[in-house]
From TrEMBL:
GO MF annotation, one: oxidoreductase activity
Protein name: LLM class flavin-dependent oxidoreductase
Enzyme category, top tier: oxidoreductase
InterPro entries: Bact_Lucif_Oxidored, Luciferase-like_dom, Luciferase-like_sf
SUPFAM superfamilies: Bacterial luciferase-like
Keyword rRNA-binding attached: no
UniProt entry keywords in alphabetical sequence: Oxidoreductase
Recorded superkingdom: Bacteria
Domain (Luciferase-like): residue spans on this chain: 1-311
Enzyme Commission numbers on file: 1.-.-.-
Length: 349
């Protein structure tokens, strides 16, 4: 198993300034490399405390690239629906070169109605815009004199500059929430898969992974594919204290997420079937049940090792991204989590 750090801000100006947030997370990114973690990942969201301090993963990861030399950089994820593919492919190719080929590109559809409204894009166009955008980026990275005659974008012939550092292109991953179709499509195309197990029952996650791995194998790809999972993580020397504070930070995160998804109570889209229940799911989230089901990594190092053994037994040797800032943790507590994980968990795993 490999382990990295996922930065998902759940704060706004009333909690801390953007400058302070970036100072703290860049420090943690450098520390993650020093401690032997595999990757740094961040997201693309807008406006709300739920991710709003990260509207452009590329800008943040370029700053990480300038401060590090080994750790991989992951967009988790960029949103093709909100950016023209020539611009998106170009700035990602720049980041791949700046970092010396350390980039993994995760693409996502987005799911917050207010974001689509701001970009004047119908929710029902989310999936076709995603598919068209990802394919256009792939072609721009790997082909010359590219001509695109799509539903949403028409351009060419163009040859992208700069070319990606990695040949033929950076690894591609696809983010999915509850869609089996996304898992199958990612497996067929040979793309990696990114998901958040906390929103599913473990059995449902296993079903999604089975679909992905079967599609991967049926398409003739070697191995079983690449799977990244994101978990909230909080460690302390005393397990009871870790669970007490972990519950507090989890409840803060859920409150911020509940604010962000509230509009789904009155929003419907054929592209997002079942999302009308997402507000209800967030409201009914229970930290104790999440801990029991292995959906959060909270406790002392031995507790977390036991939780990870359960994850490995259910899902195999996946790559795990640790969320060590969600819930507006003090930076010294996030740093303690990373140091304890590196000292006691990484060697054992």
């Amino acid at each position: 198993m490999r382990f990295g750090v996922n930065f998902f801000p759940t704060v706004g100006p009333a909690d801390k300034s953007a400058a302070r947030y970036f100072e703290e997370t860049l420090h943690l990114a450098v520390l993650a490399e020093q401690l032997g973690f595999d990757h740094v990942k961040t997201i693309e969201h807008y406006f709300a405390r739920y991710g709003g301090y990260s509207p452009d993963p590329v800008t943040f990861l370029a700053a990480v690239a300038a401060r590090t030399s080994r750790i991989r950089l992951v967009t988790g994820a960029v949103i093709p629906a909100f950016t023209h593919p020539v611009q998106l492919a170009g700035k990602l190719a720049m980041l791949d070169n700046i970092s010396g080929g350390r980039l993994d590109v995760g693409f996502g559809r987005a799911f917050l109605p207010e974001e689509f409204e701001a970009f004047e894009i119908p929710l029902d166009e989310s999936r076709p815009r995603f598919e068209e955008g990802v394919e256009a980026c792939r072609r721009l990275w790997t082909e010359e004199d590219v001509v695109v005659e799509g539903r949403f974008h028409r351009f060419g012939p163009v040859t992208l500059l700069p070319r990606p550092y990695q040949v033929p292109r950076p690894p591609i991953l696809v983010a999915t929430a509850i869609s089996p179709e996304s898992c199958v499509a990612a497996g067929e195309k040979g793309y990696g898969l990114m998901l958040v197990p906390s929103i599913h029952k473990p059995e449902a996650v296993q079903e999604l992974l089975t679909l992905y791995r079967k599609a991967w194998a049926d398409a003739g790809h070697e191995g079983q594919g690449t799977i990244q999972m994101t978990y909230n993580c909080y460690l302390a020397e005393d397990g009871d204290e870790a669970r007490r504070l972990g519950r507090l930070y989890s409840e803060r995160t859920n409150q911020v997420m509940a604010e962000a998804v509230a509009s789904w109570a009155t929003t419907r889209s054929e592209g997002y079937r079942g999302y009308e229940k997402i507000a209800e799911r967030v409201a009914s989230s229970d930290f104790g049940r999440q801990l029991e089901q292995g959906k959060v990594l909270v406790g002392d190092p031995d507790d977390v090792l036991a939780l990870l053994a359960g994850i490995r037994g259910r899902f195999g040797d996946v790559t795990i991204s640790l969320q060590v800032i969600s819930g507006n943790l003090p930076p010294e507590e996030s740093e303690r989590t990373l140091r304890l994980f590196a000292a006691h968990v990484l060697p054992a795993m």
